[in-house]
Amino acid sequence: VQLQASGGGLVQPGGSLRLSCTASGSISNMIRMGWYRQSPGKQRELVATIDSSGDMNYEDSVKGRFTISRDNAKNTVYLQMNSLKPEDSDVYYCYFKRSEWPRTRGYWGQGTLVTVSS
After folding, report:
1. Which of 1, 21, 25, 93 is deepest in the core (most CB within 10 A)?
2. Residues 6+ apart with CB under 8 A from 18
3. Which of 32, 15, 10 minimizes the C-alpha distance to 23?
4. Which pLDDT score, from 0 to 100, does residue 81 have?
5. Alpha carbon 52 to chain centroid, angstroms
6. What letters, b where the CB count within 10 A reaches 16 and e where it falls short, cover 42-73?
7. CB 94 within 8 A of CB 5
């Protein structure tokens, strides 16, 4: 599985960005796609995920501001980020989880940097 992420950049507080991540390769049996973020010296933390069923999960601090969506035809997951705050500045990583019977396996894309600053 290869994951190509894009959409990061510099934005002012209160602004918006949309991250995209396209999966290619052995992408059958997808269970979940989503986004995590990580600051230097800290653990990678969940931002938002969307399951193959369509169920979505958000980290509490982004609820109401971020929206995750998926375009199945394009094998792409999006993260629309509105009302951005300086504390949202991080490297964002795309995540893809699939069933590889008898277990599951997760894959990571390259990070995309989001900087929220005036």
Report:
1. 21
2. 7, 78, 79, 80, 81
3. 32
4. 98
5. 15
6. eebeebbbbeeeeeeebeeebeeebbbebeee
7. yes
CA torsion angle 16 35 63 113 (round to 10): -40
CA angle 93, 107, 54 (to 5 degrees): 80
The Cα–Cα gap between 37 and 20 comes to: 14
Residue 17 bridge partners (DSSP): 81
- Which residues, including other chains, have CB under 8 Å from residue 54's CB and lie 6 or more apart? none
Contact (CB, 8 A) for 65 and 82:
yes
**8: pLDDT strictly greater than 90:** yes
**Both tokens of residue 39?**
């600051």
Confidence class of residue 34 from pLDDT cuts 50, 70 and 90?
very high
- Mean pLDDT, the chain, integer: 96
Please tell me the number of Cα atoms within 13 Å of 110 on its side-chain side: 6
